Every structure is written in C-alpha cells, then in structure tokens.
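As promised in the previous annual report, we have extended the structural survey to additional targets. Below is the entry for Glucosamine-6-phosphate deaminase.
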Amino acid sequence: MKVIVVKDQAAGGKEGFKVFKDALDNGAKVFGLATGSTPVTTYQEIVKSDLDFSNCTSVNLDEYVGIAPDNDQSYKYFMQSHLFDAKPFKESFLPNGLASDPAAEVKRYDKVIDEHPIDLQILGIGRNGHIGFNEPGTARDVTTHVVDLTQSTIEANARFFASENDVPKQAFSMGLASIMKSKHLLLEAFGEDKADAVKGMIEGPDSVDCPASILQNHDNVTVIIDEAAASKLSNKY
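The corresponding structure token record, generated without further manual editing, is:
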C-alpha cells in the first residue's frame, strides 16, 4: 500500500490526477469511478487537462435505488456534471436505480464488470470504513448487491438532499470482491472526520468491521490522504 500525504484536498486532486494520467499513459482502458465530494478535485484536474478517454470505458461503483438518472441527486447526474460532459468515455456503465427487478440488475452489473475488467478503480471511504456502499459486516466475497444503507451513511449523505427523509435507504453497489478484482486501487480521503476510518484501513486489523481494511490484501493500492485524514496514523508516511 503506497500512502501519499498531502496538505489538503486540492493537493490531493493533483496527486489523484497523476495516478489517472499514469494509468492512461500505460494503456489502461477501463476506469472504475466513484461519486461524492472526495473525488471532485481529481475530476476537476482531469477536466482541465488534455487527457482523452474517448477510447476508454467507465464503470461506476454504485447508484441509489429509486432515483432516476436525470435526478440531480443521482450518481449518473453527478458523473455527467463533474466529468462526462467535459471528458466523455466511449461507453459508461452505472447501475440502474430504477430497475424493476433488482436481482436481474445485480446479475447484469456483475456481467458488465466481468466483461470490462477494471484497470484503475478510484474509491472514497466512509466515516464507518465503507467503500462503495459496502457497510461494516459486509461479506468479503460479495459481488454487486443491493445495500440497506446504515443510519450513519444516510446522515452523511443528507447534506446533498433537502432533508434526511429524502435520502434513499438503499443502493446498488459493487461488492468487495468486485472491487478487489481491479488491477490498481486508488483511495482518497480528506478531512478529520475520515481519520478513524483511515487508521482502521491502513493500520487496523483486516476485519469486516472496517470494510476498507480488505485493501491490505491487494497488491497495488495507492492511498492519497490529507494531513487531517492522516492525523491518527501511528506511522509517518
């Protein structure tokens, strides 16, 4: 696990951009993408650049259940506004939040991942250590699945909605086994509220109590964290 500590999220975005550029320069064709506030500065750096993804494929981590793609809180909408409008991919895959048959949608998305092995997957981390929407206690061998979001995750996401009651209670998410199949994992975390989760991921035991700790078992992980997120680490990086 390569750990890079930066001053703040803006600096983290510049480091994240370097990882994307290096992957693209070295032939990466499939990029696993994430939403939320964490990857925004990395996407901003990509948008400002001359990187070209027109021959590449994107596969997103997750999507809320019950939200239409054109809803401004959907992850499809997020990706369009933060990246795809400026940097279109040849094809882009996200779970269908309005799927009438969730079990069939899970199988469809597993097939997408199997047919498009991910070269570089960007991840954030939740305050409870989740990656994607794989909450504490999630089985390590699970692939795409429907997740019941924990109260802490609902509260964390409420800032994006008019009220907490509007936050979806379920989401489709790549499973931990799906994520671990990616050739290179890039995890970013910024802010003091992520410090406990970061410590658990890097220095804690490999435990289902901190889903991100599974990354200790992957042979190609880059972690970019700011000084606040790194503040509880015992070792200096």
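Helices lie at 9-25, 40-48, 75-84, 102-115, 151-157, 176-180, 195-202. The beta strands are 2-6, 30-33, 57-60, 62-64, 91-93, 120-123, 145-148, 170-173, 184-189, 221-226. These points will be discussed at the next consortium meeting with the crystallography subgroup.
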